[in-house]
């Protein structure tokens, strides 16, 4: 990798961490997610449904990009004896997660780390039953995602599960444009209903474009994500649920 490309990726990484580690973003994150990604509720429920464990099991789970703790909370509600290692690079987001999970802090270990730093920072855990993530891994470049999937595979026990809720892009330009339009229309409606604000579709499109750039989004095709899982050693790579540009997918070791 050339120095120029490496420096550019480091700059993007710093910008991504900064985008999620400021008080304004943290203060409005959950309500913003209700506007941008209303399927988050459905997607979290699918994660809990697809994991083939009994409620009484003492599971060991890694949550990558814990954010405000939404997915970890849902997992603990479904599997009340689970122990979770919650990872995020944004310390302010993690503080919000600690508040959300305040009644379950004895079950959650919090670790500050970027995904790129994981192999060095969090290298003592092993034998995980599951690794989960929600709306976080799409910030990685393709080769970074491959390394993360390889790390995940190495930390899972045999037959362990990886399940990821995320966004992706569509290969067909006509479908991509249509899916984006539908997304923008949904945001317009929810902005009116939840935030009591009126915005044109052009405003929403411009705001989302700026947000994707600021957040450091690097969306792949869903088929590429599944291929990367296969390349990482997962014996099964599957999409469990999909709607337009959002999916719940993963693999079994």
Detail the topology: elements first, then pairings.
Blueprint: H1 3-20, H2 23-36, H3 40-50, E1 60-64, H4 70-78, E2 83-88, H5 91-100, E3 108-112, H6 118-121, E4 128-134, H7 142-155, E5 156-167, H8 173-194, H9 201-215, H10 222-231, E6 236-243, E7 246-252
Parallel strand pairs: 1-2, 1-4, 2-3, 4-5
Antiparallel strand pairs: 5-7, 6-7
Helix pairs in contact: 2-8, 3-4, 7-10
Could you characterize what this model shows?
The chain has helices at residues 3-20, 23-36, 40-50, 70-78, 91-100, 118-121, 142-155, 173-194, 201-215, 222-231; strands spanning 60-64, 83-88, 108-112, 128-134, 156-167, 236-243, 246-252. It contains ten helices and seven strands. The protein is globular, with a radius of gyration of 18 Å. The chain is α/β, with parallel strands linked by helices and 253 residues long. Helix 2 (23-36) packs across helix 8. The protein has two domains: 3-170 and 218-252, Vaccinia Virus protein VP39 (Rossmann fold); 173-211, no CATH class. Strand 2 (83-88), helix 5 (91-100) and strand 3 form a beta-alpha-beta unit. A seven-stranded mixed sheet has the order 3-2-1-4-5-7-6, with helices on both faces.
Keywords, please?
single chain; 253 residues; alpha/beta; Rossmann fold; 2 domains; 7-stranded mixed sheet; 10 helices; globular; transferase; methyltransferase; methyltransferase activity; SAM-dependent_MTases_sf
Compact summary:
The protein has 253 residues and is α/β, with parallel strands linked by helices. The protein has helices at residues 3-20, 23-36, 40-50, 70-78, 91-100, 118-121, 142-155, 173-194, 201-215, 222-231; strands at residues 60-64, 83-88, 108-112, 128-134, 156-167, 236-243, 246-252. A seven-stranded mixed β-sheet has the order 3-2-1-4-5-7-6, sandwiched between helices.
